[in-house]
Amino acid sequence: MPIPLSLYIHMPWCVQKCPYCDFNSHSLKQIPDYAGYIDHLIADLTQDLTMLDHNADHTIHSIFIGGGTPSLFPAELIAQLLTRINAQILINPKAEITIEANPNSVDVERFTGYQQAGINRISIGVQSFQADKLVKLGRVHNPEEAISAIKLAKSLNLQSVNVDLMHGLPNQSLSDAMYDLEQAIALSPTHLSWYQLTIEPNTLFGSHPPKLPDDDRLWDIYQQGHQLLTKNGYQQYETSAYAKAGSMCQHNLNYWRFGDYLGIGCGAHGKLTQPNGEIRRTVKTRHPKGYLQGRYLERTYIVPKEELPFEFFMNRFRLLEPTPKQEFIERTFQPLSVIENQIDIAKTKGFLIETDKVWQITEQGKLFLNSLLEIFL
Ligand SMILES: C[S@@+](CC[C@H](N)C(=O)[O-])C[C@H]1O[C@@H](n2cnc3c(N)ncnc32)[C@H](O)[C@@H]1O
Ligand code: SF4
User: Fold this and answer.
1) Which of the ligands is closest to the CA of residue 203?
2) How far from the centroid of its chain's Cα atoms is residue 208's Cα?
3) Which of 239, 248, 291, 339 is most solvent-facing, going by the fewest CB within 10 Å?
């Protein structure tokens, strides 16, 4: 089976930097040259395409335009971007094409423009429906704007609409967290990403940590939130990802199933299987300044063979679905014998169940995922 190829496109600007965020995003000091950035993305893609195996039949299976705040880009430029990509490498007509949108940077015209450009999935960064929580998170939108953005996206009958919410927020009670989920569920997005807030070292929250709920409360929020989502038809398929039937995010699934992807734009990462079975990773220049001077590729390297099992399982075991053994062989180009001992250890510890064709992570394995992965280091 050919390895599916996706495309990630990074848009690095935001109206203002959120205090918890360590994504590659930069506050707008002045309006950037959005059109010029599109030219750079295309030049970056052109360089990347020389690294593809030209004997393989490559078409793009999914596109994710992430950020930063991609919805700062006008629809005409997103249309131009997709047309110019398609002129270089065929985008499968059925490809899932997502754009991330912040509630403060959307209106009817922009969303319909995105749809006309070929976007069929919109992911809206809501984080919370409570005004005080949004202020504490440094968000530039209010709950009403979030609700309108979701309603608007839903009205377009796209393939899927995702809402990003976070939990474990400063001073969040169990009922606050359930309120956020209930509000989201009432708007009926097809996909819900429900992340626990993590404090990242290189952020404002990292240097000035807010008071977060204790472990017992975090556990209650997770348990009850999970139940509420499940009861309402949202099936968990990854640690933080819940979807209605048929609405799992194809782009993220490709990452987690260890598929290939091109990554263009500031700081974007790529993974490209080479004709000889080696796996090449690419990392793009992180800061817009260097990137806009035409220095796209910061580094590229071949992943050492002995690290591949760990890399494969680190992605694969995030998914709750079983892992076909065949996929390990096809995606790492290694025989099962290289992990036989580690699989035995994982089974003995109760982290995995093995059948002829698959490995299934157990509840114990999910709970102690780091210990499970360490076995493959
Ligand atoms: C690439 S980010 C940004 C999307 C968009 N710019 C926004 O903020 O709405 C995607 C999502 O990651 C989540 N996220 C970002 N930082 C996080 C953190 N420190 N802990 C947990 N989730 C985080 C947020 O839910 C966010 O919507
Ligand atoms: S808007 Fe999104 S990407 Fe930008 S700083 Fe905030 S969380 Fe990060």
Assistant:
1) 1
2) 27
3) 239
